[in-house]
Amino acid sequence: MTKLIVTKRMMERPNDSWTLKSYLDSGGMVAARKALKEMSKKDVLTELMQSKLRGRGGAGFPTAKKWSFVGKSFPRYLCVNGDEAEVGTFKDRMLMERDPFQLLEGMIIASYCLEVEHAFIYCRGELRTAYDRLTKAVEELENAGYLGRNIFDTKMSLKVTVHRAGGAYIAGEETALLSSLEGYRAWPRLKPPFPAVEGLYAQPTIVNNVETISYLPWIMENGGKAFAAMGTDGSAGTRLFCLSGDVNRPGNFELEQGTTFREFVDRWGQGVRNNSTVKAIIPGGASAPWFGAEALDYPMDDDFVASKGSMMGSGGIMIMNQEADIVAAAWRLVKFFAVESCGQCTPCREGITWLSDIYERLLSGQGRSQDIDLLLDIGDNISPGLKWPPVYTTICVLAPSAVAPIESSIRMFRGDYEARVTGGPDGGPGGTATGADSASSGSRRVSLTRRKLEVRARQ
Amino acid sequence: MGEMGQSEQVNEEKSGTVKQADAPKPPGLVFQGKMLERAKAKIAEYPQSRSAVMPLAHMYMAAVGHLTDTGMREIARLLRLTPAEVLGTLSFYEMFKMAPKGRYLVSVCTGMPCQLYGARQLLDNLLEHFNVAPHEVTGDNMLSIEEAECQAACGGAPCLEVNYRHFEYLAPDTAAQLIEDIKERGLDTVLYRRGAESAPLPPISAEEIAEGMQPKLLSPKEAVARAKAASAVPASGGGAK
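YS: structure for the whole thing
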């Protein structure tokens, strides 16, 4: 018996898994028909509860619990979060491109349970192929009578709108997504009120990740217990793990949760690139604190990874081998957050940009010995205590996320940072610079003190 | 709005001498006839018309190439907003370009996994090969190159997008040839290209899939139990804070 769930169809039908014909030929719409005709709304929620499915967008909140919080008023909305932009995560794009009907069937089931008549897919603008296929899929389903009025001759009607976004990472935060969908800047909102009570157009709204919704057809067809039988107690079922970085075969792999990192890297990733060994592991997308090589024996399980001070997050696992430039890698992640900050909160807007600037000073060979502690100090102002799960000084979790790679990489690889410090406490051409970036910047390596003296001399 | 108009003028002056007749030019009114019908249908899809601001901007960009002052006024009129509200929203998002772009917009991802595979070098090589600065248009109006954030293709690093179509498994030294091919033959004919340096990825075989689905020696539940037992002993530097 196969245990592939969301990637089954695209593995079996690599050439046409995204067409309606292929979808219906391979058992498509059976689950939606079953749910709408044979199951009550309560049954659907019960199955989901038994499946122990947890959200796959990053926070890992139990999906059934989220649904049970939905407010009592109407209209209600369902928003599927397809704004995938977390560094190291590329599963939703694959699901939207290769199996759009599976997602839409999941949306029909979810809308039935939540009594939603208008559902949205918030598709990231840069994913043009995904948007095109989703739009076409919605049209085909409308023409075939699977969307619209009286689906499967029941009282249910559903309209699906595919919304093409404009390219902003922060729009993946659920309240920012709602702001963006309403036609405003993608600014996160303070919670409460939670979207389940007051979301899109101030109506009860459920926001779920693409992968989360894609599991629904299988769960309704095979039962929640069959799903919960896979994986671990805390993290039931399979999960689409994204493997990238220094491995021989990067890609998406659907595996049972609880598989160890070692098996994931050695067997599915076919080992570390360039016959090297693992130096650092990022277990759950750019926001997650890093692990060292000792984490290879950890299981990929939400609760366990959380107990070690990081998170499985969005399931984007990045591997760095011994040759990787740790400081440059951390800088690029920090810069990502600096670029993508929405600008509402000062610690994030100013702080992360400042952190990124300090990294650039280190990388250009002008690092000062106090810069490493300065990074931690600014980080501590953004996320007091440098803990994970973090303490916020901002509306959303983007700012503490930027601090996570800094804190964890300095804690584990302080030597790599110290090798970048070339000057004394005041800067200056003290030591020798390492790395390619600093080679070209030799002429810029002028002591700040000397520069001050020159300025004074000119006056 | 005034500021934006100025920057447009500057851009036109810069490329004024080489501007071709077929370069995208904002026509009088974009949302008219069929386009207006499509726009109205789009607005009707949403419970509140303001939600259509990004979809309409995408439609306008597809027709004109970039967002102009007049375009944003048109969108504002259709949605009963002020032009400032439209600009205020759209300027937040990366994809809405307020200055003319080349026919092919090349967005090179330099995110962390791509950086590990030499994306920075790839971007530098491209800029050097086509002799153009980031966000500028080449003399023949064909190309704009920009540095982009993660494009959800980290498994195929380094990657880039041409008019938001993905090209993965590139290499720093072959990307320029890819863009030359696209320039010469059009985007639709160039489907896929791997870098010379990157070895072809071994596909996942059917046996491997079947094997992977068999119960493993250590079940996930056992793995968790074992790891928990192991971590009861204080681990050395194991992320404990």
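YS: worth flagging: The first strand of chain A starts at residue 77 and ends at 82.
IM: good catch. Also Chain A touches chain B through 96 residues (CB under 8 Å).
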